[in-house]
TrEMBL record:
Organism annotation: Marmoricola endophyticus
Region (Disordered): 1-32
Protein name, entry field: Uncharacterized protein
Amino acid sequence: MTQESFPGEQSDGMYGEAAMPAEPGADPVDGVEPDIAEAVHHIANRYGAPGLEQLIGAAQGELQDARRALESLGAESEE
C-alpha cells in the first residue's frame, strides 16, 4: 500500500495524489468529475470549513476501504 499524502504536501497532482487522466465525463480543466465537484461545493456552501473537514475525513475512510477491497480482489485473482 502506498503512503497517503495530504493537501499541502509535495505531490504530482491535486489533493496529494498522483496525476491521473480525466475519466469520461470529467471536467477537462481540473480532472474532477462534475458530480464530485458539485457535492464538494454544496458541502462548502452549506457547512463551511468544518463540513469540508468532515467530508475529507469520511472520504479518506472510504478510500482506505476501497483500496483494501481492490487489493483483496487482486490477491484473489492471483490464486
